[in-house]
Amino acid sequence: MSTSDLKSTFMTFCKFGDPKNAGTMTSSKFFKFCKDCKIVDSKNVTRTKIDLLFSKIKPKSGRTISYSIFKAAIPKIAALKYGDADSGAEEKLLKLIKSNGKAKSSGTKAKKNKFHDDKSNYTGVYKRGGPKTVGDQITLSKMADRSGANVRGVNSKYSANR
Predict the structure, then answer these.
(1) Per residue in 58-107, pLDDT tens?
(2) Which residues are registered as beta bridge partners of 155?
(3) Is the pLDDT of residue 143 over 80?
(4) Each residue of 21-43: b (16+ CB within 10 Å) or e?
(5) Is the pLDDT of residue 142 over 80?
(6) Cα–Cα distance, 159 to 162 (Å, whole number)
(7) In the structure, what pLDDT confidence band is assigned to residue 10 with cuts at 50, 70 and 90?
(8) Is the dihedral of CA 70, 71, 73, 77 positive or negative?
(9) DSSP state of 162
(10) Beta strand 64-65 with 25-26: parallel, antiparallel or unpaired?
């Protein structure tokens, strides 16, 4: 994987949800990178380990990392994923990043709800078609009209108790 491919993958994850980002990665985006690139597994690499690694590589007073810090952390991520003894760990990691280096976005699909979707279960006003929005009702414009108001401020033209 070339340096430009790694940088474009880094920028893809930096800009995910924040298109104006100039190239800094937060802890949550770093974890998203690790999860979407399939670095995170249920046994060796967990959310906690990724967060601890991020805390080690970021500057002491900072909350984000730049590309240079990210690039320097690749060997540490490889050691976390494949173990310290594996000599080809960094190459394996770069292949993994290259094959899975796209930010994935998925929303929640709503399930069918019989009380909402089945109109035969509706009750009250909604069974008869819902509330009316037109007709002889008290509206905001009628309430704000103070022409012909009595001492109490009630307009006799629009009074609810005619």
Answers:
(1) 999 999 999 999 999 999 999 999 987 778 889 999 999 999 988 888 88
(2) 149
(3) no
(4) beebbbbebbbbbbbbbebbeee
(5) no
(6) 6
(7) very high
(8) positive
(9) -
(10) antiparallel
This prediction has a pTM of 0.65
Residue in the block written with tokens 């022409």: 147
The Cα 91–Cα 103 span in angstroms is 21
Whole-angstrom distance, CA of residue 45 vs CA of residue 33: 13
How far CA 62 is from CA of 7, 12, 21, 24, 47, in Å, comes to: 21, 21, 16, 11, 20
> Sign of the CA dihedral 67, 52, 16, 21?
negative
CA-to-CA distance for 88 and 82, rounded, in angstroms? 9
CA atoms of 121 and 153, how far apart (whole Å): 43
